[in-house]
Amino acid sequence: MRRREFIAGLGGAPACAAARQANAAPTRDRVVRIGVLGTSPWPPFEGLREGLRELGYVEGTNLAFEYRWNGGRNELYPPLAAELAAMPVDLILTIATPAALAARDATATIPIVMAPIGDPIKAGLVSNLAHPGRNLTGFTNLATEISGKRLELLKQIVPSLAAVSVLGNKANPFTDIELQYMRPAAEALRLSLTLVPAANDEQLDEALNAWARLPPHGIVVINDQFLLSRHDRISASLLRTRLPSVFGFREFVDAGGLAYYGANYRLEFRRMADYVDKILNGSKAGDLPIQQPTKFELIVNAKTAKSLGLIMPPTLLATADEVIE
């Protein structure tokens, strides 16, 4: 059930949609091709489709997506990015840091729009959010800045918590970046952190077996598209081992994880449609500032909390955007 709705702007939503349609890009005499580079199909991507339809782009008429999914194998990103660059496509949309790095290395001319990634500056993609330069722009989810808040959330749910296992993909540069942000927060909360690496299915199996043998502790899963693509397995393991967990993707909570705190990704993909349209109509990607989230969500799974024998703080339930009963 919804506890807080994003009210700002709702009253003007119909008018806004009408205005966007009125200013929609004219029907083109050719098909615009957008390359998509990522791990696997992701539901929030539908927000981009919705936004592009409002702007006059119709799949099968003047718009086509060229998908390249790596299935969780980051070593495939460079050849897949090269395929898209060689087609060529009019624009490449990347999902996650490794995909953005591969696309950057594959082309210096085709515009690249990065789907929400944690820290494009520390990842070496851009040097400035306001003026990214080159052929790059996109959106950051500020995951590095809110990683500490996820630890605070876990500690709020389990006040006696002293140890946290962090599941992360070491093949993703973002894992080390987020750990840098998590450690000061962990020290302040007097939590010990242990990285449990999982860059492929074999390592993930080892990780899921390993944390079942550890003393009572909490779990934080670092945002990563490979781990997201295995969210069902991870969430099921956490339920079996009765471990409290916090995530940066809501799919984990829908599958039985305990709590989610992060950006509204469907909304962020919808906002991307405007950038895609601007670039297709002549704007330079590097001149468009990298955007930050406009809304964060807190979702807690009360059903899972009950199964773990946890009593959720009333203040937490009251401030949650959604409580899964």
What do these coordinates show?
The chain has 2 domains: 13-141 and 265-294, Rossmann fold, CATH 3.40.50; 143-262 and 297-324, Rossmann fold (3-Layer(aba) Sandwich), CATH 3.40.50.2300. Helix content is 40%, strand content 19%. The chain has helices spanning 13-22, 46-54, 77-86, 97-106, 143-157, 173-188, 201-211, 225-229, 231-241, 250-254, 265-280, 302-307, 314-319, and strands at 32-38, 63-69, 91-94, 112-117, 136-140, 163-168, 192-197, 218-221, 245-247, 259-263, 296-301, 322-324. The chain has a 7-stranded mixed beta sheet with strand order 7-6-8-9-10-11-12, with helices on both faces. Helix 2 crosses helix 11, helix 3 (77-86) crosses helix 4 and helix 5 (143-157) packs across helix 6. It is elongated. Mean pLDDT is 88; it is low at 1-27.
SS-based class: alpha/beta
Extract low-pLDDT stretches. Answer: 1-27
Helix and strand sequence: HEHEHEHEEHEHEHEHHEHEHEHHE
- Share of residues in helices: 40-55%
Shape: elongated
Strand segment tally: 12
Amount of beta strand: 15-25%
Q: Identify the CATH architecture of the largest domain.
A: 3-Layer(aba) Sandwich
What strand order characterises the main sheet? 7-6-8-9-10-11-12
Q: Can you tell me the number of structural domains?
A: 2
